[in-house]
């Protein structure tokens, strides 16, 4: 649980609150499809969410060097 809390804290540091609304809407679409009993729609909504989340997160990895590396090290 402590580790999860640390990840959440880092996530909040890297991503502005503006992305929270988009993420929340994506989660709502997934949940709505599940509640409606539409597995294909739930799958599509989750895939769309994961794709969007990946696009949101990739720039953060470009900004910070991996542990033990300096910026620009390849």
UniProtKB/TrEMBL annotation:
Taxonomic superkingdom: Bacteria
Keywords: DNA-binding, Transcription, Transcription regulation
Gene Ontology molecular-function annotations: DNA binding
Pfam families: FCD
UniProt domain GntR C-terminal: residue ranges: 3-51
Signal peptide annotation: none
Protein name: FCD domain-containing protein
Source species: Micromonospora orduensis
Upper lineage: Bacteria, Bacillati, Actinomycetota, Actinomycetes, Micromonosporales
């Amino acid at each position: 649980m402590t580790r999860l809390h640390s990840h959440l804290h880092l996530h909040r540091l890297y991503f502005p609150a503006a992305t929270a609304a988009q993420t929340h809407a994506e989660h709502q679409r997934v949940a709505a499809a599940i509640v409606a009993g539409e597995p294909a729609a739930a799958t599509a909504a989750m895939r769309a969410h994961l794709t969007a989340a990946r696009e949101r997160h990739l720039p953060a990895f470009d900004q910070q060097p991996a542990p033990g590396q300096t910026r620009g090290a390849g």
